[in-house]
Amino acid sequence: MIPAEFEYHKATSIQDAINQLGAHEDSKLLAGGHSLLPMMKLRFAEPPTLIDINGIEELRGIRLEGDTICIGAMTTENELIESEILQQHCPLLVEAARLVADPQVRNRGTIGGDVVHGDPGNDHPAVMLALDATLVLQGPGGERQQPANGFFLGTYWNDLQEHEILVELRVPVIRQGVGHGYSKLKRKTGDYAVAGSPVVVELDGDVCRDIRIALTNVAPMAIRAEAAENVLRGKVIDDALIEQAAAEVIAACDPAEDLRGDIQYKSHMAAEMARRSIRAALQQARG
Amino acid sequence: MDNAAEVQEREDSIKGVGCSRKRKEDARFVQGTGRYTDDLKLPGMLFADMVRSPYAHARIKSINKEKALALPGVHAVLTADDLKPLNLHWMPTLAGDVQAVLADEKVHFQYQEVAVVIADDRYIAADAIELVEVEYEELDVLVDPHRSMDDDAPILREDLVGKMDGAHSKRVHDNHIFNWQAGEKEATDRVFEQAEITVKQEMYYPRVHPCPMETCGCVASFDKINEHLTVHLTSQAPHVVRTVVSMLSGIPESKIRIVSPDIGGGFGNKVGIYPGYVVSIVASIVLGVPVKWVEDRMENISTTAFARDYHMTGELAADSEGRIKALRVNVLADHGAFDACADPSKFPAGLMHICTGSYDIPVAHLNVDGVYTNKAPGGVAYRCSFRVTEAVYVIERTIDVLAQKLGIDKAEIRRRNFVKAEQFPYQTCLGWELDSGDYHTALEKVLDAVDYEALRKEQQEKRAQGELMGIGLCTFTEIVGAGPSRNCDILGVGMFDSAEIRVHPTGSVMARMGTITQGQGHQTTYAQIIATELGISSDEISIEEGDTDTAPYGLGTYGSRSTPVGGAATAVAARKIRAKAQKIAAHLLEVSENDLEWEVDRFKVKGVPGQEKTMKEVAWAAYNNVPEGMEPGLEAVDYYDPPNFTYPFGIYLCVVDIDKATGETSVRRFYALDDCGTRINPMIIEGQIHGGLTEGFAVAMGQEMPFDEQGNLLGNTLMDYFVPTFVETPHWETDYTVTPSPHHPLGAKGVAESPHVGSIPCFTSAVVDAFAHLDVTHMNMPHSAYRVWQKVHELGLDQHA
Ligand SMILES: Cc1cc2nc3c(=O)[nH]c(=O)nc-3n(C[C@H](O)[C@H](O)[C@H](O)COP(=O)(O)OP(=O)(O)OC[C@H]3O[C@@H](n4cnc5c(N)ncnc54)[C@H](O)[C@@H]3O)c2cc1C
Questions:
Q1: pTM of the predicted model, to two decimals?
Q2: Which residues surround ligand 1 with Cβ inside 6 Å?
Q3: Could you say which of 1.10.8.100, 3.90.1170.50, 1.10.3300.10, 3.40.50.1820 is the CATH number of the domain covering B37-139+215-263+270-303?
Q4: Is the pLDDT of residue B801 over 70?
Q5: Rounded to an integer, what distance in angstroms lies between the CA atom of residue A197 and that of residue A213?
């Protein structure tokens, strides 16, 4: 329960943080610390240097730019929940943040840390997939934009490059005819998902123009259930189609068995969460 | 004001028995000024940390301390070899076995203590344990107790090979600990052979951990000059610890002081003596400075005492009307690698033979085999008197199964079998004398309160619609207040308890007991007992426990024994004081003792209004004007050896709805009626019941300590181990009846464990009931969503249209 020895540096700006990452071998950024510090206390991770990015103001805050919401990587879960911009323009993020961990963790844990950490149990990666978000990353070579779809490669493995920092997340505002749904099954307060599923649906009249069904904690990383989406896209969604999609969700799952359940249970729960989210999203899209 | 009102006012001002006085402990706890073991910081204090085994069963080939010793700030690294010359590498357990203090040549369970590092601070100690190099040779692991006595099972305890005389019985296999039986086997078997109806149900009561908020720890401080040892530790039984430490170390008890400061919950986890305590004491004696050892959460869950782990088979024989003719119970008990159960010496399966429950059962037989496996030792009572939770679980589950088989309602079958009010005191066929009870009245009260008929009707409708609703019932009898020294002792010390009360000249009181509060509110309730007996306001009565230098010897607090035993000692000691006070009052009023009568807070001369002396006046006189020949002062001690246990009971009813899609169970209603005899502080009773129900909910719905095939403990953090928060915890409805104990000085029975004991089978009863129409008779705990869903899925109830 006591981490190995490490050095601590406080970064003053994004550039300073990038420089320090370069200067200290194997160093790690410290955001909210609620994934990193537990791993260090268990000595699963022993980074020699921590670079604290909590003091960098440019990494915080939520602003609206036209049809896009820009969320600083260091914005905490509780700030997401309390944001009027999100409540109005992106209810999915608010709902998802409410179901992350417990109030203490949400006070410090950040959306950026949650997205890049790489634990398949983290909620935000799947939410970013469903929202079709864009990640703004900055490294020694400058800034680049990367779609969330394609960023997550495996457990503790993503497309973040050496000495790169996630600076901002960009998500589209919800429009007329679009609906969000989020469902997460957990054993108790403060637990990671047994299975979770954020869904975004776009309707054209009664027809599903597009749908994104993402899944949390039922594969090595957050995934899209594309076969399930294909069942529904271009159709008038009814119960029978939802059941077909649910069967595709089960087929898409590749969870690790643990105390939360075996492969069968987790896959079925993913399907159930998807069902619930699809229904909720449809209801919202229909207005 | 008329006389009656004036008397009532005085009565109220005393805040005695029956008053919902606010807890005296809370002021310091809610302000963060409680003082726990880990708060203690002594000058020059060092820290101990344990090197633990990653393997469940392995031979230790070598231990290399060099690198750890080279780390600046490390004072010592001790292994079994270092303790051997002191003969402290093994220690006796409370169950007649021995236990390795530090692993001696072999490790027997994962996380077993292999070496201890003593360092300047806990950070250095944590770094140093990583530097101790231990080479292991892995051995075959024994996880399943059903395999323990197989011919080809790996032998765990090489120290016991060939020693077939166990502490409790002959051993029939090297991995066998004991066989223990109660009742009449042949007579029982005969009834079963001839019975109209028999049922048999296997069930597993999982290994769980009490998981107190504060983990175990100690600060040992040996004063080399005065050869005096002081140990602050998280103990539910500080006096017993002093005796054991003296026996192990050779230091006279008069030079050992054990202090249990504020304790953040015990629930049985803090009864035993742990290797951490022993090595801290040894290190302090060797190094001459104080040494602190405090477990982290994972160490607490993984190594200090677990509870339960009973594989049980319950069988009932009955007539076609459901009247029980015989009970047969078989148990395979998994005790882990050392038998460190904390039970009265004579009872290796605790008070399991209370398993006839609340029922009038003519004949019964109980058979328990204890075996070794590669798991941590323990087997304590987790918020229950010794193994009573297991006993209640097996009878309550089995009677449900009988009801189901006969198609009799589960409330009705209980009505037909209850011991009747007029049968008390009732001798059970397994040897207990139930002191008092009125089960029928209590059951009807609960059924009326919840409108049982309406619930059953609703359930019918729900079932017709394919929904899962369950109604659970548990009508339990507890056995608490261990116990009469004729059948209860710990390491040979009778299980009495004690109180010492001093009334000061100005009439305030200081009292000390041999018990120790850990959330039960003794400072509040013991004062109320004395207040009523002596007519002094409980606000002027201070209660102190836990310091062996000042408190009288007692066996401590567990098994709901404080009120039945310590509370009785308190009442009797107070009565001794009142008897002396009466003599002094008679002397002051110049009348005969027999001319006086007691009224709330004073002695009055019968029939002579105005001629009276208050207890305060008498207290003053006790120090300056006592009758000739009487010694001055006003104090008394009582060591109370109870004539019998007490038998609290309760009727619990639970209604659940199950989500077929996820397996989640929602507890819609939980109604708990408790009868603990005389109620000393109703508010504290209510709090204890809420706490016990919540812990029962935790056990039934989520707690377990699963092991993989290599003996690795899975789920030893609070991420996995289920400790419910307010979010998960159901709403509790409480109720009561009062059937005083005829033999307890106050008629009180003890209550804190009833809600735990009674609620667990009630939850199982409810969950199973949701599936009862599909011929499901039992489902093992925990009733997590995952497990319940597996049943739903197996029955094909989750098919979507
Ligand atoms: C009890 C408990 C329950 C939890 N339950 C949930 C849950 O239900 N759902 C869930 O999603 N999470 C859960 N978490 C995790 C929690 O949400 C973490 O806060 C989150 O995963 C990581 O965010 P952080 O800000 O704390 O990051 P940190 O722990 O500080 O960092 C995590 C990793 O991300 C890196 N990092 C952080 N920020 C950046 C950045 N801007 N650019 C590049 N790298 C960065 C760090 O270097 C580190 O490797 C739980 C945690 C706890 C302790």
A1: 0.97
A2: A 28-36, 38, 73, 100-101, 105, 109-110, 112-114, 116-117, 122-124, 165-166, 190, 192
A3: 3.90.1170.50
A4: no
A5: 7
